[in-house]
Sequence to fold (134 residues):
Amino acid sequence: MQSLRFTMRGEIGERPHIRYSALASLQDDRREKSSSFSGLSTAAHEDLRYRFELPEDVPWKSIALAVVLLAFGCLFLVISHFIYTQHMEGDSSQAYGFLVLGILLFLPGFYETRIAYYSWRGYKGYSYSRIPAY
Fold:
């Protein structure tokens, strides 16, 4: 008797107010791929949400920004070093401030400049599309 109740619960469900939709199956996918809509092939029905095309142009503004960030980052790191070693006048807290600013400017500038250089040289795996365009 208990197995009968369990079977009835499994078939009817404990929540009769919830409607369940049919799950997609492998057969449904095959049927959609094999059928054609009004005689057109399935290639014409490509989902455009997943299409990705790489831009062909060079992002000059982004590369210029990366070079400026790299230059100022290097400059601030050198100033931080000179203040810390007392080749320039200043407090050690100023040296730490220039050090933090130098690191924050140097890292993204170096990263994007390196990608731009490797893209320009034609290294495998590097392209201008990896640099954000502004």
About this structure: The chain is about 55% helix and 0% strand.
